[in-house]
Specification:
The complex is a heterodimer of chains A (257) and B (801).
Chain A: H1 2-5, H2 13-25, H3 29-42, H4 47-62, H5 66-79, H6 86-100, H7 109-124, H8 131-158, H9 162-175, H10 180-198, H11 202-222, H12 229-252
Chain B: E1 14-24, H1 31-38, E2 45-48, H2 52-62, E3 66-76, E4 80-89, E5 92-99, H3 103-112, H4 123-139, E6 146-153, E7 160-168, E8 175-181, H5 188-194, H6 214-230, E9 237-248, E10 252-262, E11 268-275, H7 282-289, H8 299-306, H9 315-320, E12 328-336, E13 340-348, E14 354-361, H10 368-372, H11 385-398, E15 407-413, E16 418-424, E17 433-440, E18 447-458, H12 460-463, E19 478-487, E20 491-500, E21 508-521, E22 530-544, E23 552-566, E24 575-589, E25 600-610, E26 619-631, E27 637-648, E28 661-663, H13 667-670, E29 677-679, E30 694-696, E31 699-701, E32 705-714, E33 718-719, E34 724-737, E35 749-760, E36 764-773, E37 790-797
Parallel strand pairs in B: 1-4, 5-7, 8-10, 11-13, 14-16, 28-29
Antiparallel strand pairs in B: 1-2, 3-4, 6-7, 9-10, 12-13, 15-16, 17-18, 18-19, 19-20, 20-21, 21-22, 22-23, 23-24, 24-25, 25-26, 26-27, 27-32, 30-31, 32-34, 33-34, 34-35, 35-36, 36-37
The chains are: A mainly alpha (257), B mainly beta (801).
């Protein structure tokens, strides 16, 4: 029954470890974590201590306590740097950060940590079987960061703060050129420059329509195959026409001031 | 052949392979574990001399198993090296005990003692604990604490020991005398008051022990020095300070503190000059500095007015508020004559900085948009310190973030004259609250029980997703509230409300409220039995405005009300009454806090119309409200408030007698008079019959106009996040008038009194007031008029401003 399966005072290290392992195998990860924790304490300096440290981390991982799991994997890495399971532990630790990464609308500190850990992993173990997996996770999380930056720009577009919107669209393009949000950001940038120019005083309009056209050209360079091509072409035509109007308008009435 | 002795530190580091590792001195720990833990495995390569050995020693120490670790090189060839690890194992701690000490102190000590079971008992570890204990007692005033240690083997556990600390705390000493030498400008008595938090004992100081604490002493000395500097003694110094025990009153020991002070001259300001300023003129800068020729040189004031002061009128703010982030003012203070100072500033204005990135961290529950829409620092704008300060204030008033935890991180980039701003936030405290309050509302009202659940950072979008419920869908800054109130046996109220301050991500607020109020009067005085109910619903749409300034907002509220009256109530006749209302509100609100504003004002003007549609009753109404909060001294705040209202009618036959003005009480007492528009007035009861109104044909009816004036002095005594306690004193005056012809803004009923506002986690905001009324109120059909010259206790829940 339950009481026999718990570690008691006076149990030797190997008995305690067996009991912890039994819980782990029964998928009772919360109790297993407690038990392994005890074994690591009493079994320091023994083989059981090392095993328990690894399974302590695993138990936390499997019970989705990623914050605790990450720190136990890290402890394993620092205690047993020579062990071959270190590669697994490092990958799992990075994975723990990945699981803590929240939706894009919230603080992305865990996401940035996870990216850093996966990058470190790939630099350290370029031959590991996990490398592709790690690279995919990095892509996924960078896309999330790009999305966050892009939505920051969308806020400024909605509230008609064009300068701020353009700065944030630029961030999306410059920092995450490989993400799917970069192309979208360039289309929005053309549109935003046009809106910005429309709402500007006459003397500033020419420069801002020209910027719209610059953004269009950048798009052609970076994403010639994009399916947003038609959309941006239309915007480009609009910018060209408006620019024409401004220029001819200025010629018609030479500067007076 | 000669022997050559090679100095090992002189040999050049080279790579060696580890040929062999021996371990000595270990009895309980396996050799292989020690080798693994040291990372010095056979076959691996190390640089020697290098840090591999010291790292290995460090790693082994970290295992906590050994009291001593040495690593020797036993053999060394050109490519290989052999090592010997010598360890000393020590018994490990099973537990430790503290003897001869009080229970409460034991618990406090156990919190700060770091002696982990399972670690090695070393002299160093035991010594550390002894020091911790001694420090602990010294902080409490025990200067001569003696500690004996005993280490006992434990029988049934192998290699485990029990460490026992026998503590003799000794006598507790108090500060009996604080003496100053060399002070001429200020008396000992004055200085003793300035050396707070250090205190001297005296026969009349019966509360608290006057214990000597090092940190108090340091703080006290600094405060004496700043007191001198604030009075022009720029050169003041403490030549010598001594703290010693002495015998006072015969053989009793106490502590004496002695300070020798050199005051130096009292300086006055002579000339203030500036160089390099192009944006502001000398006169403007001099005014910001706040010193005139001949003023005593107050160093503290000087530094504040250069760098940053409370009102942001300092020199730095002057520049930083208009973008000059890289601005520097370097003062050069020159002593001229005996006691005068010439101050010269070299001003480096540099260029205006533009804001580039604005980010924030720590929003673990609140979505980005909610934060970003509150930021007053916008990318592309000029840098402004006041914009950052306003942002911090407004993020704080959202109620989602710990106001003390908001920190701006300003990172200037001199190269391209830009600046990045990151706000650090903390939203881990829950913003939802559950309020449960109860109380006695006074005669004719009875016991009040009110519960209310507010979700202040709700997210409707997440509520539609399954994973959003953990436990409550949060993050979009929407408000959802549910409330139930029962008063006595007669009154019940149910309400539900939702509001979204930024509808579809744009600065338009949308909200709706539904409520149902029901009252059943059983009092058989004259009007036998009257029952009435109100179903009310409304939708509101609001916008923040940019003109005339960005504190303005406007709001449109469309509502439908169905009143049902059985029997009769006052002048109101029985039957159903439908009202369809449109209300337009314009508001300017610059309050910095809704529970207890320090500064700011709020002006609200509203116009409401219930048009005479077929089947509907009609009226129109105007109301104006102005309140102003101004800090006086310290934390004391003065609030003045003026309110007026007028109700009129379009037609003669469809007039609604509902919604007229009754004055008196607070919302809690007024709830059962929901057929009227109730105006708060402290010191007066708030029930339908006892409120300030007019008696026509023996029945109380509401006025068509009202006026109200209020003056409040408030002192936020306790203001932390958990609890706020704000005592206040007030003078209120107000009246309701039958019609325009009888309106007289100076004919009012007055009250004075005291009160306290409490903000408690579960109860929410509670307001208790005890007012003395100077005027009386006529109560129809009874002999118990509300008498003047009496005290009225009132109680309310919810925010007053």
């Amino acid at each position: 029954c339950k009481n026999d399966s718990l570690i008691k005072r006076g149990d030797t290290v190997d008995v305690a470890f067996e009991k912890a392992m039994a819980m782990y195998q029964n998928e009772d990860y919360v109790d297993a974590a407690d038990a392994f924790e005890t074994v690591t304490r009493v079994g320091r300096g023994t083989e059981y201590g090392q095993e328990a440290q690894f399974y302590l981390a695993e138990s936390y991982f499997k019970s989705r306590q990623y914050l605790l799991a990450a720190s136990e994997y890290d402890r394993y890495i620092s205690y047993y740097p020579q062990d071959e399971r270190r590669v697994d532990a490092e990958f799992k630790a990075a994975l723990c950060y990945y699981h803590q990464s929240p939706r894009y609308k919230l603080d992305q500190t865990p996401t940035r940590n996870a990216i850093e850990r996966f990058q470190l992993f790939n630099n350290r173990y370029p031959d590991s079987e996990y490398v592709t997996q790690a690279a995919n996770y990095i892509d996924e999380m960078r896309n999330k960061l790009a999305h966050k930056t892009y939505e920051g720009a969308q806020f400024y577009i909605r509230t008609e703060q064009y300068e701020a919107a353009i700065i944030y669209l630029n961030q999306t393009i410059d920092r995450f050129p490989e993400s799917k949000w970069a192309a979208r950001a360039l289309v929005d940038q053309v549109e935003t420059y046009i809106a910005y120019a429309d709402n500007s005083i006459l003397s500033k309009q020419q420069e801002r329509y020209e910027k719209a056209i610059e953004a269009y050209e950048k798009f052609l360079q970076l994403f010639p195959e994009s399916d947003m091509r038609a959309e941006i072409e239309n915007l480009h035509d609009e910018a060209l026409n408006k620019l024409q109007d401004v220029v001819t308008g200025e010629e018609a009435s030479p500067e007076q001031s | 052949q000669e022997f050559q002795i090679t100095d090992p530190t002189g040999t050049a580091p080279a790579e060696y392979q580890i040929a062999d590792v021996q371990v000595q001195g270990n009895e309980r720990t396996r050799s292989q574990f020690i080798i693994n833990a040291s990372s010095l495995n056979i076959g691996s390569d190390i640089i020697y001399p290098g840090d591999a050995i010291s790292t290995a020693v460090e790693r082994l120490y970290r295992s906590g198993l050994f009291s001593d670790i040495k690593i020797y090189v036993t053999e060394q060839t050109a490519t290989e090296i052999s090592l010997l690890i010598e360890v000393e194992e020590q018994p490990r701690i099973l537990e430790y005990k503290l003897k001869n000490i009080k229970r409460s102190q034991r618990r406090d000590l156990e919190d700060i003692i770091t002696l982990t079971p399972g670690t090695v008992v070393s002299d160093a570890a035991v010594g550390r604990v002894k020091n911790t204990i001694k420090r602990f007692y010294k902080e409490k005033g025990y200067w001569y604490t003696e500690i004996d240690t005993e280490i006992k083997e434990v029988e049934d556990a192998n290699d485990r020991v029990r460490v026992i600390f026998n503590i003799d705390a000794g006598d507790r000493l108090e500060v009996k005398d604080i003496e100053f030498n060399g002070n001429e400008a200020f008396s000992n008595r004055k200085l003793r008051r300035k050396i707070k938090p250090l205190k001297e004992d005296a026969w009349w100081k019966i509360f608290g022990k006057k214990v000597f604490k090092e940190e108090d002493f340091e703080e006290g000395k600094e405060s004496v020095l700043s007191f001198y500097r604030a009075n022009g003694y720029t050169d003041v110094r403490i030549l010598k300070d001594s703290v010693y025990t002495y015998d006072y009153k015969g053989d009793k020991e106490g502590i004496k503190v002695l300070l020798n002070i050199e005051e130096g001259p009292k300086y006055k300001v002579r000339n203030i000059t500036f160089d390099g300023n192009t944006v502001y003129e000398d006169a403007t800068l001099r005014e910001a500095l706040g010193f005139q020729k001949g003023d005593v040189f107050n160093q503290q004031k000087f530094e504040e007015n250069v760098n940053i002061n409370k009102d942001n009128t300092d020199l730095n703010s002057l520049y930083q508020n208009v973008g000059y982030l890289f601005f520097q003012a370097i003062p050069n203070i020159e002593k001229v004559a005996e006691d005068s100072l010439d101050i010269h500033f070299d001003i480096y204005e540099d260029e205006i900085a533009t804001i580039k990135n604005v980010d924030f961290t720590g929003n673990t529950r609140t979505h980005d948009d909610v934060v970003r829409r509150t930021l007053r620092t916008v990318p592309g704008n000029k840098y402004s310190r006041s914009a950052i300060i306003r942002t911090i204030r407004e993020l704080g008033t959202l109620g989602f973030f710990d106001p003390q935890g908001i920190e701006p991180d300003v990172r200037p980039n001199r190269q391209d004259k830009t600046v990045d701003v990151t706000y650090r936030l903390d939203d881990t405290e829950s913003t939802s609250n559950f309020e449960l309050s109860g109380g006695y509302g006074g005669s004719g009202i009875g016991v009040i029980i009110s519960t209310r659940v507010n979700f202040n950072n709700f997210s409707l979008q997440r509520a539609l997703k399954k994973e959003g419920w953990n436990p409550i869908p949060m993050g979009d800054g929407q408000q959802l509230s549910l409330g139930v109130q029962v008063t006595g046996t007669g009154y019940q109220s149910y309400s539900f409300g939702f509001s979204e301050p930024w509808f579809r991500g744009r600065p338009t607020s949308v909200g709706f409220n539904v409520s149902y109020d029901f009252y059943n009067s059983r009092r058989s005085s004259f009007n036998v039995n009257s029952k009435y109910s109100l179903f009310s619903s409304n939708i509101s749409i609001g916008r923040r405005l940019k003109w005339p300034d960005d504190y303005f907002s406007q709001r449109t509220v469309i509502g439908y009300q169905l009143y049902n009256i059985e029997g009769s109530s006052g002048a109101l006749s029985a039957g159903n009454s439908n009202l369809f209302t449109i209300r337009q509100v314009i508001e300017r609100n610059s309050l910095d806090n809704f529970i207890s504003p320090n500064t700011g004002s709020k002006f609200t003007f509203s116009a409401e119309a219930a048009p005479p549609l077929p089947g509907f009753s009609e009226f129109y109404k105007f109301r104006a409200d102005y309140q102003h909060h101004v800090p006086l001294v310290d934390r004391l705040v003065m609030t003045t408030q003026v309110q007026y209202g007028y109700i009129g009618y379009f037609t003669k036959d469809k007039r609604s007698e509902l919604n007229r003005f009754l004055v008196g009480g607070t919302q809690l007492q007024q709830r059962q008079s929901f057929l009227y528009d109730n105006i708060d007035l402290r010191g007066y009861p708030g029930s339908t019959t006892e409120s300030i109104g007019h008696v026509v044909d023996g029945r109380k009816i509401g006025g068509r106009m009202f006026s109200k004036y209020s003056l409040e002095l408030r002192y936020p005594a306790v203001t932390n996040d958990q609890v706020q306690i704000i005592p206040y004193t007030f003078t209120d005056a107000g009246n309701s008038y039958l019609d325009f012809n009888t309106f007289d803004p100076f004919s009012v009923k007055r009250s004075v009194g005291v009160g306290v506002r409490l903000y408690l986690p579960i109860l929410g905001l509670i307001d208790l007031s005890y007012g003395y009324r100077l005027d009386g109120v006529n109560v129809p059909n009874s002999t118990n008029d509300v008498q003047p010259g009496q005290w009225e206790f009132l109680f309310n829940i919810g925010a007053p401003f």
